[in-house]
Amino acid sequence: MAFAGTWTIRVAGDNCRWCDHCRPDETDFGIRVFSGQVSDTYFARRAFVRGYVVVVWRGRHVVEPMDLTVGEAGQFHHETMLVARALRDCFRPAKMNYLTMGNSEPHLHTHVTARYPGDPGDGGPLPATEPPLLDEIQWRRDAAAVRALL
Ligand SMILES: [Zn+2]
Questions:
Q1: What pTM was computed for the model?
Q2: Which end of the chain is more exposed for a tag (fewer CB within 10 A), N or C?
């Protein structure tokens, strides 16, 4: 039950790992491939497909995109689209997906995922289970290729 227990405190920003970890180049989740004016993008270590990143809002603690100013929202969307374009140019997928939930991590972030024919969610969403760990060498190579486009 994600919305029980400490949820209200976490929504308020207490112990928010995205606010607290000070924009590192690499985390357990992934490696940073882009730093914008209002976001950082991490290329995920675990993924069902090649080309999965999370664009994380930077600034004050924000949970919902509707709580951004018009200017902030525009910049966040702009930076998300820059990253999406780089993923498309790098991996040539059939489709790009954008997902802003925050149901387990209440800090604004958007998942941007390349999608391919025959991928584990072909025609629908990818599975909600934990994705497999990517090959370390290929993961770092892919991250570098995306970073080079940004
Ligand atoms: Zn936060």
A1: 0.95
A2: N
